[in-house]
Write a structure and sequence with these properties.
By secondary structure, this protein is α/β, with parallel strands linked by helices. It has one domain (10-180, 253-294): 3-Layer(aba) Sandwich (Rossmann fold). Helix content is 40%, strand content 24%. It has helices at 10-32, 59-64, 80-86, 101-108, 110-113, 128-138, 159-167, 179-186, 195-205, 210-214, 236-248, 282-294; strands spanning 40-45, 52-56, 74-78, 93-97, 121-124, 144-150, 171-177, 215-222, 225-232, 253-254, 259-262, 268-276. Strands 1, 4, 5, 6, 7, 10, 11 and 12 form an eight-stranded mixed beta sheet that branches. A two-stranded antiparallel sheet has the order 2-3. Strands 8-9 form a two-stranded antiparallel sheet. The longest helix is centred in the first third of the chain and has 23 residues, at 10-32. The protein is globular and about 75 Å long. The two termini are 34 Å apart. The protein binds S-adenosylmethionine. Residues 7, 16, 47-49, 53, 79-80, 97-100, 103, 127-128, 151-153, 156 line the site of S-adenosylmethionine.
Amino acid sequence: MNSIHHFGGDWTENKLTRLKKYLDAYISIFKSNMRAARLHTIYVDAFAGTGYRNIEKTKANIATLPLLDDAEAVSFQKGSAYIALEMEPSFDEYIFIEQSSEYSKELEKLRIRFPEKSNKVTIIQQDANSYLQKWCRNNNWRFDRAVIFLDPYGMQVEWKTIAVIANTKAIDLWILFPLGQAVNRLLTKKCPPTGAWADRLTRFFGTEDWKNAFYQECQQLELFQKETSLKKEANFASIGKYFIEQLKSVFEGVAENPLPLRNTRNIPIFLLCFAASNPTGAKTAVKIAQHILGK
Ligand SMILES: C[S@@+](CC[C@H](N)C(=O)[O-])C[C@H]1O[C@@H](n2cnc3c(N)ncnc32)[C@H](O)[C@@H]1O
């Protein structure tokens, strides 16, 4: 292990634990149900990182976390790709997408850690949006089913990617919505953002309607004249609700209780959200996800 990959905080463990619970439930359904067992299962980690998460060693976390080695200053914890590979029974195929060449090389080393699964793993060093959009469109979904985990640092996921995932009717999606991390910050208080910030929000939500959803007209008296302007009328709850409604507009089923992942100042930096696109499986999938999110 050469590359150090620091990300997240205490909430990261929480997110990964819930993802793992879902993957366990998913694979156990697919392997135990005779009809489902004929389908080919794929786990896609689209912001895969290195397979590990590095954290500073402190007296407190040495006692409480499942650390992977005894290095001096930092320790290695399992990242999402590692957790998925560790599962038994396993998925039939794993696709790890990572833009960084350095991190992709680290992902390659997972083949050494899991030699018996090496031939099931494909590592793609590309932008997750362009790869996923093409893959979802071109793959034959008749016998393939997938779980995709979208775990970006911020607003890297485009709505087009989410829409194309939903359109496969074969994929369950776990996604981190960057609520306090990015979206709330871009929604400036006095008036809606313009230029690059506005474009970013539009690409992210897939519509310009966020302006109507998050801003309201207000009238002010300026030099004896009434001036109309737009003022932010959105908070964490309404922004989260808007994203869930957006997911509902394209997915068969969406978990109603996304999990706020809070930083040490209690700010909900991300919402862990779940959506299912398969008409046959969505009801059960959402029920399981809601249970996992609610615990
Ligand atoms: C929060 S980390 C992922 C952590 C990982 N899920 C884990 O649990 O170990 C986000 C990763 O996404 C990668 N990344 C950022 N933008 C990307 C993009 N457009 N396409 C693919 N990967 C990207 C970063 O290099 C980083 O490794």
